[in-house]
Amino acid sequence: MKAIRFHHYGGPDLLVLDDVPAPDLCAGEVLVRIKAAGVNPADYKFRAGWFKDFVNLTLPFIPGADFSGTVEQVAPGVHGFKPGDEVFGMRDVQVGGSYAQYIAVRSDAIALKPKRLSHVQAAAVPLAALTAWSALFDHAELKRGQRVLIHAASGGVGVYAVQLAKLAGTEVIATTSTGNVELVRSLGADQVIDYRMADFASTVKDIDIVLDALGGETQVKSMGVLRTDGLIVTLQPPGVDAVLAEQMRVRTALVEVAANGKRIAKLASLLDDGVLTPIIDQVLPLAQASQAHARSESGRARGKIVLTVD
Ligand SMILES: NC(=O)c1ccc[n+]([C@@H]2O[C@H](COP(=O)([O-])OP(=O)(O)OC[C@H]3O[C@@H](n4cnc5c(N)ncnc54)[C@H](OP(=O)(O)O)[C@@H]3O)[C@@H](O)[C@H]2O)c1
């Protein structure tokens, strides 16, 4: 089969289209013929070697967590899926494998594709939407009426976080830049702060929950807009400085997203009901994975980048 791989850590140009054997199927797995693969920032971070001191990838490595496609084959021990089913799902980013024509994946990491969505749209969902869900509901246990500040609301995770927080009945305040203000408002944000025009730290206060996709200065300043005992949930490892958080009298959490087929099925029903919508930044053919990574690394993606696979 065709697959994108990198043989060494480095820049986006190291992504090459290789011929590789199709994956073997183990018990409990399904073989999916991939139609579209979602691109996440973690894909380029692993490629660039950001995590090489902590996570030992076997090179050459096929990147990619998110995929949507058709079940080709089912191993013993799999219930609920059969050849021909249209499915979507994710593998953990450090396992990778979705920038390819086929992937073998545990059946508890997939769900039936929402009928309303194309494969391109479905591939734009799993990792980013599961991250938003985990931040808002596992860590923050969001309650109706709370005030939530969502940073990078126009990004892959942010577009789902705004919609899910709104569905939960919270007041959503979101940050993005000028060109994305209308998009974020259309997703349901009650207040959108254009970070090029205003400093959120002097615009809002008494926030119950901050979803911090950015880290750094944004993370530190975010602690100052929380109410006492408010919670900052960050997506940036290693998490928030515990000493600083204690001084500021705020609580902290770090999201570590993981594949979860049952939850992907819940997302599928929200997507089929039309109350959750993917936002696509760019669609590129698999062979142009290096352009997709360059776009992701720019930090300017507006929703998700998706690769199509023939
Ligand atoms: N811990 C986990 O399990 C986990 C899971 C998923 C993602 N992540 C991490 O979370 C981060 C976000 O992921 P993502 O997929 O949402 O990224 P993304 O799609 O690349 O985010 C891009 C968006 O960020 C916005 N942005 C950039 N700087 C901003 C600022 N200063 N203020 C407000 N918005 C800003 C951009 O809007 P403008 O162009 O308008 O600036 C753009 O729309 C990444 O670092 C990713 O690796 C971690």
Explained architecture:
This protein has 310 residues and is α/β, with parallel strands linked by helices. It has two domains: 2-125 and 278-308, Quinone Oxidoreductase, Chain A, domain 1, CATH 3.90.180; 129-254, 3-Layer(aba) Sandwich (Rossmann fold). It has nine helices and 15 strands. The protein has helices at residues 41-47, 119-123, 126-139, 156-167, 181-186, 216-223, 242-248, 261-272, 289-297, and strands at residues 2-5, 16-19, 29-39, 66-74, 86-90, 102-106, 110-112, 147-150, 171-176, 191-194, 207-212, 226-234, 251-254, 280-285, 304-308. The strands form three sheets. Strands 3, 4, 5, 6, 7, 14 and 15 form a seven-stranded mixed β-sheet that branches. The protein has a six-stranded parallel β-sheet with strand order 10-9-8-11-12-13, with helices on both faces. β8, α4 (156-167) and β9 (171-176) form a beta-alpha-beta unit. The longest helix is centred in the middle third of the chain and has 14 residues, at 126-139. The radius of gyration is 19 Å and the shape is globular. The mean pLDDT is 98. The structure holds NADP nicotinamide-adenine-dinucleotide phosphate. NADP nicotinamide-adenine-dinucleotide phosphate is lined by residues 40-42, 128, 131, 151-152, 154-158, 175-177, 180, 195, 213-214, 218, 235, 255-257, 296, 299-302.
Question: How is this fold's topology laid out?
Answer:
Layout: E1 2-5, E2 16-19, E3 29-39, H1 41-47, E4 66-74, E5 86-90, E6 102-106, E7 110-112, H2 119-123, H3 126-139, E8 147-150, H4 156-167, E9 171-176, H5 181-186, E10 191-194, E11 207-212, H6 216-223, E12 226-234, H7 242-248, E13 251-254, H8 261-272, E14 280-285, H9 289-297, E15 304-308
Parallel strand pairs: 8-9, 8-11, 9-10, 11-12, 12-13, 14-15
Antiparallel strand pairs: 1-2, 3-4, 3-6, 3-15, 4-5, 5-7
Helix pairs in contact: 3-4
